Amino acid sequence: MEGTIAGEGTRTTRKEAMAETRRKLMAAGREAFGTIGYAEASMDDLTAAAGLTRGALYHHFGDKKGLLRAVVEEIDREMSERLGAISAAAGSRWQGLVDEQVAYIRMALEPEIQRIMFRDAPAVFGDLSQWPSASACVAALKAHLDALLAEGAIVEIDTEAAARLISGAGGYAATWIATSEDPAETSARAVASFRTLLDGLRARGM
Amino acid sequence: MEGTIAGEGTRTTRKEAMAETRRKLMAAGREAFGTIGYAEASMDDLTAAAGLTRGALYHHFGDKKGLLRAVVEEIDREMSERLGAISAAAGSRWQGLVDEQVAYIRMALEPEIQRIMFRDAPAVFGDLSQWPSASACVAALKAHLDALLAEGAIVEIDTEAAARLISGAGGYAATWIATSEDPAETSARAVASFRTLLDGLRARGM
DNA sequence: CGATTTGACATACGCGCCGTATGCCACTAT
DNA sequence: ATAGTGGCATACGGCGCGTATGTCAAATCG
Predict the structure, then answer these.
(1) Mind listing where the DNA-binding region sits, in residue ranges (chains A, B) (predicted)?
(2) Which residues share a beta bridge with A154?
């Protein structure tokens, strides 16, 4: 029924092979884009590292940008999941917001995320948060702010705009930290100031 | 004495000619980088548009990145001047800070600044605020915050870190606005939220 | 179960663009 | 006026992207 001799388990049906090469290309893309960067990455080298040729790449992703797009979407999903788990584990809603944003900054310190999501992708695609898969991080942050506003826990503010401003500040903080000489110390400073800045949004009546 | 026939005024001494070609190349660079972007800009086309060839470019700037570097430094100086004038014209120190930051966001709406300073330059050079000429905008903002902190007008905070966070939020707001469908309305929302966010830094005792 | 079709991927090609090496000629110095 | 300097143009090599074409294994159908 499957066109194979028996239930050999690791037999190479067409779909499996395709998924495998796709995974190889994505992995090679994350590796190359995350280290030497998008502009410097050669598609010949990248595909060769995956044990393939450019033919496979253009078949699956159309062009060089297509591979970057796929990689970005994958990383975006992973980030959302991790952030969601963190805010869900927090004690209060406010604490969840703070934890999530601090985690966001810390995630942006990971070289792969730093380089691909905060440096190359915006240059190639313009603004990320305007996507179909719209950088779910901003969306989650807005939802958080909406809930807090409804509770009266924060001052009156346009939650979408605020979410974008906060996210922008966090992203910039990450690049500042990543390019500094002492990332650990810089990170501590950035996070502390970030907490102060966020605290300014809490409702004054306490 | 000048190697020319007479005091013709517009006679071509060596230095003048060099300065002129440099200006032409910079102008062509700002035009090309500011519209089609750094990656898509062909140095053949760019130099031809300036009435020159790639020979002149590589003589003056070394390579493609060299021209971008020079363009970025020039724009950075212009931005600092404009922002300094704005904050100097404000009534109070706090008002100067707010005006300056709002102006920063609005400046980032200019296509040339948006594309070159906020999109391409960070991708090519990494973080801008770590430069020799260190994006004077951040430095000016930090100085502002230092003064306000000394006056007791804002809450206790690491002023450099805060300056970078604020600048990051502003920069991101600008790209959000620039890529939105209705920039005017989005701009109003961003600026309003930005004011609220800044307001959270003011000393609670009023 | 064998013939035919499909399509995933490799190979081959052309073009554009960058960076360098070389050449030319106007301006400078003596 | 003559020798020399250097700003800029021209010529060359190489690389990387995107496309067109080929190939062979897996899927489909009688």
Answers:
(1) 42-61
(2) A202
